[in-house]
Specification:
Layout: H1 3-17, E1 22-27, H2 30-38, E2 44-46, H3 48-56, H4 66-77, E3 84-87, H5 95-108, E4 112-116, H6 135-152, E5 157-162, H7 172-185, E6 189-192, H8 198-206, E7 212-214, H9 234-239, E8 244-247, H10 251-268, H11 270-281, H12 295-305
Parallel strand pairs: 1-2, 1-8, 2-3, 3-4, 4-5, 5-6, 6-7
Helix pairs in contact: 4-5, 5-6, 6-7, 10-11
């Protein structure tokens, strides 16, 4: 294993086990990861849903393969120097498939992943219902993941994600039952998926003795009149024991802005591009998108290794 990969798994483990919460932004391309690293984030989350959308044009229904996910993660790992936490879906099959999938992720340079307890293949992700595997089968898959990890890099983070709250025949009590079973088998982190309120999140996180977190951006927070409100602050989340916050910080807004720019161009043509350039010129330098890909590195390589003079071509 390359030294960089060992360094990244140690960093991610430290992030999960320290008292302070870290924010991990969503993304799915090297360019996304480079932007967030440049902005000062400590780690990057490769979203399975976004990978399906950006790479395949599919919704989040488990259609991506292990090979597609691992290869995409590897492209990201080659471009950044912060840890990658990644979605590994159901492990793409039985406990045997999980063993190989975990090792492929480690070889790809991923620092940790979350493995869910849904059936494989999925019914249709989180939208039209979820079916759970039995606790015994799930425990076997987590044991397989841990064994695969221990062969290559004991610091690689194994996170158990329970989908029991939103699954057919599931419920909050099933969530708590499964979390304890997964903790006992030795996973490093628990991910509570699709909980219905911040109160449920706080209760669930207190039910285990290892790092845990909830995916809070899915919860619709409203006041008594039904008006939207922001929900718990980052400080409140940290105080409640949230190990990390997985958040779609920029890309939803970026996609909406891109769509509006497309419609603007359809309406105004070249005038829309001119207005954009003028608007950018009026911004302070620190607000402008930095150049993340360096031509200078390529020029340095050319200067070092290409011939100084080329022979005449006949």
């Amino acid at each position: 294993m390359p030294g960089k990969s060992f360094e990244m798994t140690k960093k991610l483990r430290e992030i999960f086990y320290r008292p302070e919460m870290a924010v991990l932004p969503f993304g799915t391309t090297p360019h996304h990861a480079m932007m967030f690293e440049k902005a000062g984030f400590e780690a990057f989350y490769m979203s399975g849903a976004m990978t399906a959308g950006w790479l395949l044009g599919w919704p989040d229904v488990g259609a991506t393969t292990m090979r597609e996910m691992a290869d995409n993660a590897n492209r990201i790992a080659k471009t950044i120097n912060i840890p990658i936490f990644a979605d590994i879906d159901t492990g793409y099959g039985t406990a045997v498939n999980v063993f190989r999938s975990i090792q492929e992720y480690i070889w790809a340079g991923v620092a940790g992943c979350h493995l869910e307890d849904q059936e494989f293949p999925k019914k249709s992700g989180s939208q039209a219902g979820r079916r759970l595997i039995s606790i015994d089968e799930a425990v076997g898959k987590y044991r397989s993941a841990i064994a695969a990890r221990n062969e290559l890099d004991p610091n690689f983070v194994i996170c158990a994600r329970s989908d029991a709250r939103g699954a057919e025949g599931g419920g909050f009590n099933e969530v708590l039952k499964r979390a304890k079973a997964y903790e006992e088998v030795g996973v490093d982190v628990i991910f509570f998926e699709s909980l219905q309120s911040w109160e449920e999140c706080k209760t669930a996180m207190k039910s285990v003795n290892i790092p845990a977190f909830c995916l809070l951006h899915q919860v619709i927070f409203s006041d008594e009149a039904g008006n939207p409100r922001p929900g718990p602050s980052l400080k409140e989340q940290e105080e409640a024991g949230q190990a990390i916050a997985l958040l779609p910080i920029a890309l939803g807004a970026a996609q909406q802005a891109a769509w509006e720019a497309i419609l603007d161009f359809k309406e105004k043509g070249m005038e829309a591009l001119h207005e954009f350039r003028v608007n950018q010129q009026g911004k302070p330098p620190e607000r402008l998108m930095p150049n993340l890909t360096s031509y200078q590195k390529v020029r340095d390589l050319e200067e070092s290794f290409l011939p100084k003079e080329y022979p005449e071509q006949y």
